[in-house]
Amino acid sequence: MASLRDIKTKITSTQKTQKITKALQMVSAAKLNRAQTHSQSYIPYTEKIRSVVASIAAGNQGTVSHPMLESREVKKTGYLVITADMGKAGGYNNNALRRVQDMIDERHRSTNEYTVIAIGKTGVSYFNKRNMPMAEHLTELPDQPDYDDVRALAKRTVDLFANEEIDELYMVYNHFVSAISQEIYSTKLLPLTDLDMGHTETHMYQYEPTPGHVLKRLLPLYIESLIFGALLDAKAAEHAARMTAMRNATDNADEMIDDLTLSYNRARQAEITKEISEIVGGAAALE
Q1: Taking phi first (over 0 means left), then psi (-120 to 50 degrees means alpha), and beta for anything else, what does residue 195 get?
Q2: Where are the alpha helices (DSSP H) in 60-183?
């Protein structure tokens, strides 16, 4: 049985850890509120640019084309993976990495058939350790990123497809569902084969110089907006996952402290009983 001093040391250590997890839980809760607001406020922009792109493509009855709208023979696939720069977020990072690893294992036999665009130190470290090809990476993003923080990577990612260095692009990230729930999304970004060509909007647009020129400019912006929107969504999911993980850790610390306190009291009672027995035994021996 552990000594009273050992048990007391464990109780003190657990209490200190509990203070840290409680503080991290409160910080993540505050960050979550801001990240959720940021993510939701960006949705209308993405929806509007999608509507305009779909309107141009549908309104010209197929006369306007663009490589981003057309499928081609797939020789190389790109995977954009969003993870966090740090842990302490439950299964947040592992879930995304497991999903993309399963996709790669299922679809490819050689590292020449794919490349990775990694956001977050956890993902970068994972792919580096396994010698998996990385075309681009981005780390140390702020908790509330701005578009400028990801603009360069988003543009380079689109250029990979435009320059035919990759022939399709998938994005894998954690989607924020609620404060206690996240869902892994794996979505195909390029080529754009799921635009709603049957939309019923009646807006009429005039384009200068031509619809083709406008589409050429808007399509990369649309993909970049999807990447940034996914990053905002993933950030909200990250803060939610870390808040939940730290709350669970705090609750576990409570239980551990209760168990250790019970063990401490029992050990102390046993020691007192032993001392009393020794005193009684010594007194009896003197009679």
Answers
A1: beta
A2: 92-107, 121-129, 147-162
Ramachandran angles phi, psi of 146, nearest 5°: -100, 165
- Hey, what are 211's tokens? 């619809």
- In total, the chain counts a number of residues equal to 287
The number of beta carbons lying within 10 Å of the beta carbon of residue 103 is 17
Mapped onto helix, strand or coil, the DSSP state of residue 143 is coil
How many degrees, rounded to 5, is the angle at CA 190 between CA 186 and CA 191? Answer: 130
Contact assessment for residue 175 and residue 99, using Cβ atoms and an 8 Å cutoff: no
From 211, 220, 190, 249, select the one nearest 64 (Cα to Cα): 211
Place of tokens 């580096």: 128
Summarize pLDDT for 173-198 with one digit per residue, the tens: 999 999 888 999 999 999 987 765 44
Asked whether residue 182 falls in the same domain as residue 154, the answer is: yes
pLDDT digits (tens, 9 = 90+) for 209-236: 777 777 788 888 899 999 999 999 999 9
Same domain? 55 vs 195: yes
The neighbouring-strand residues paired with 78 are 115, 169
Identity of the amino acid at 179: A
On whether residue 118 sits in a domain, the answer given is yes
Say how many domains are in the chain.
2
Q: Containing domain of residue 240, as a range?
A: 25-244
